[in-house]
Amino acid sequence: METPESTGTEGAVDQPPSRRGRAHYFPDVTDEDWNDWRWQFRNRVTTLEELARHLSIPPGEWDLRQSVLQDFRMGITPYYLSLFDAGNQDDPLLKQVVPLREEYEHRDVGLEDPLGEEQFSPVPGITHRYPDRVLMVISNSCAIYCRYCTRKRIMYEDAVPEVEIDRMVDYIAKTKTVRDVVVSGGDPLNNSTPKLEKILAKLRAIPHLDMIRIGSRVPVAMPQRITDELCRMLEKYHPLWINVHFNHPNELTKEAAAACDKLLRAGIPLNNQSVLLKGVNDTLDTMKALVHGLLRMRVRPYYLYQCDPVRGTEHFRTTVQAGIDIIEGLRGHTSGLGVPTYVIDAPGGGGKVPVSPRYMLDYDREGGKVILRNFQGKVYEYFEPREVPSPVAVHARTDSGESHAAPKAEDPSAPVVGKSSWVHRGTSHKKDAEAQGS
Ligand SMILES: *Cc1c(COP(=O)(O)O)cnc(C)c1O
Ligand code: SF4
Fold this sequence. Notes:
- The chain has 438 residues and is of the alpha/beta class.
- The chain is 28% helix and 15% strand.
């Protein structure tokens, strides 16, 4: 029997018949143009007039959509547009990038900078919120403009000047605590390969920087950009990680799968960040199809973001329960590798806060007993180890807070832990343990 060769496109979903694709929307474009990312970038749909050539705009919506575009630009690559289900106004990909009436209606609801990124910015372009890693915004443009984008305030499409990038690099170079930089935007992969290389080389020259991460939606929106030339350049700057941004299984095309495969073969681990969007991907079936397709492509689902309260995105926001229900429906029911961490980015700059279904129903610290619920709703008891005097227990403290032995409270090498986890257990734990026959 023949062993099937990997084509790198194993995750790709077959096109539904209603998606007439490139042949329908762009019948006259040559393969050479279509496969050239610069052609894709140059021929993005950016005006309503261009959009109306491909989709019908409902009567009476022209003016309000025009007014939305004055607030936040549109950009749709021919490739991404070719994935729309022709004629379906509820198409999950169309909704992500086409300005709709709802956006107009909610134009005054929400915040400019919901995550307070500007407040945590020591130099323009850097957000330093966590102790050991920073976000570095090196581009103000994207292949497609997502209507729900948290950073829509910066999308005015002037290139970030080199002096600004140098100031960002300088900040990282002089801040020794930074070991991880998230290079984002906008989309860093919109830059030409030499321009991007210049930035990566400067970052790589910083000795205390362990790793570089790039956040990009290009493999989703303009997979033609992932050329061999780009991959040969990127692989010189390892350890390099890339976070991609797939939201819906219809985005898992052969082209996207091939782009991811190239990056993976260049040794770059790929993790996916999705945004939970009402009417796009807020059902368990859609999310399951998405994470299964990603795993087939060897892309690990990393984060599922609750949609930020950005100006004009109210119609995309779901309840938090909707996100919890999706995680509940995945965990235990499918490969653990396919379960992302569901996070809410705390408004005002609190950072990402993980939110999860409640699996620990009770934790009796005194008794050392944990009550757990599994994915089927069955309840289990887990017992912590009983405290037996042993060399490793010398750090244990009594209820009164006295230390049995060395590290004194003022000892800077003493572990910093909450007192509660160091308390001696009562006898109830022992009885419970015996009742279990241990
Ligand atoms: C998301 C984010 C990071 C990276 O967070 P991880 O949890 O390490 O992926 C770093 N800085 C900022 C400002 C961020 O928003
Ligand atoms: S690709 Fe990312 S940065 Fe660009 S518009 Fe979409 S969400 Fe925003």
